[in-house]
Amino acid sequence: MRIFVTGASGFIGRHLVAELAETHQVFAAVRRRPTEAPAGVTWIEHDFAAATPPTSWPAAIDAVVHLAQSRYYRAFPEKASDIYNVGLDATMRLLDWARAAGARKFVLASTGGLYGTGSRPFRESDPVMIGPGPLGFYFTVKRLSEMLAEQYTSFFPVAILRIFFAYGPGQAPGMLMARLIEAVRTGEPVRLHGKDGIRINPVHVADAVRVIARCLGADASGVFNVAGPEIVSLRETAMHIGTALERTPRFVAEPGAAADLIADIDRLRRELIPPTVALRDGLRTACGAPPSVRVP
Ligand SMILES: NC(=O)c1ccc[n+]([C@@H]2O[C@H](COP(=O)([O-])OP(=O)(O)OC[C@H]3O[C@@H](n4cnc5c(N)ncnc54)[C@H](OP(=O)(O)O)[C@@H]3O)[C@@H](O)[C@H]2O)c1
């Protein structure tokens, strides 16, 4: 299969490209070719923020996986154009090109953040709740991208993956799980709202990659929550990290109740593939400790 992957130098993209390149012809769209790049991949330098036409893209493609997101996705309003161009404009260009290039699958990375927060697990049928705040513009762009992509389902199956807290080796420092690991490693206190902090079901990057690969092999279409198999509080997560790093986490209470963000993953399990990496094992890989069991 000829597969075009955007955001191929990113956290999920790097893991995905390495996996897909073993059995597929991969075209990896990047702003700049990475220094350590897996062999057998065709690298295409393309800056989505510049909104240039896709002149160097292949004339024919079987599948597209759109993972790119603005580096400045939190920086609204200063970087609104970058967030818009890399999020929404790029999605439209990719959909348009994918149709002309004969694509038979399209996978769009979206976010579980679209649901807002709540104490029960969110289903795909739940309404989107985009409030104001620093991430509101980014969430809006994601939701609009989903809506554009849905319009193309008469041309190819479109799988929209609402990802919840991906984690694993090589994650950028600013992300929640990477920040927790750093806090426990350095002895900085972990801040908890409520007794134990928010509850989440984070997904290991190996499971996220398996879900994307499954979408490429199936005719999956529609919205899928992509999250991990375990619901844990921030306190429990920090305790797992402490075990992996052989350190005792410190905690500090913050005012206000915890705002949980938990995915219902019934549809993922039923129609795609169940996530299998237990948090304890996944966090060991994220901390650089040898896993107690093999994490595929
Ligand atoms: N990781 C999570 O927990 C999570 C949660 C919810 C949703 N998601 C979604 O899943 C997708 C992948 O996430 P990730 O964690 O792998 O993201 P990431 O590590 O931030 O990677 C983003 C990718 O987008 C590329 N990019 C940024 N600006 C670009 C531009 N102007 N032109 C071309 N490419 C550009 C980056 O390239 P450079 O490296 O060159 O900047 C990088 O390859 C994203 O769409 C994200 O919204 C992820």
Description:
This protein has a domain at 2-168 and 203-227 and 262-276: NAD(P)-binding Rossmann-like Domain (Rossmann fold, 3-Layer(aba) Sandwich), CATH 3.40.50. Helix content is 33%, strand content 18%. It has eight helices and 13 strands. It has helices spanning 11-20, 80-100, 136-150, 176-186, 205-217, 234-245, 266-272, 279-286; strands at 2-6, 25-30, 41-45, 63-66, 105-111, 158-163, 166-167, 190-193, 199-200, 203-204, 222-226, 232-233, 251-254. A seven-stranded parallel beta sheet has the order 3-2-1-4-5-6-11, with helices on both faces. It has a two-stranded parallel ribbon with strand order 7-10. It is globular and about 55 Å long. The relative contact order is 0.13. The mean pLDDT is 94. NADP nicotinamide-adenine-dinucleotide phosphate binds next to helix 1 and strand 5. Residues 7, 9-13, 30-32, 47-49, 67-71, 86, 109, 111, 163, 165-166, 172, 175 line the site of NADP nicotinamide-adenine-dinucleotide phosphate.
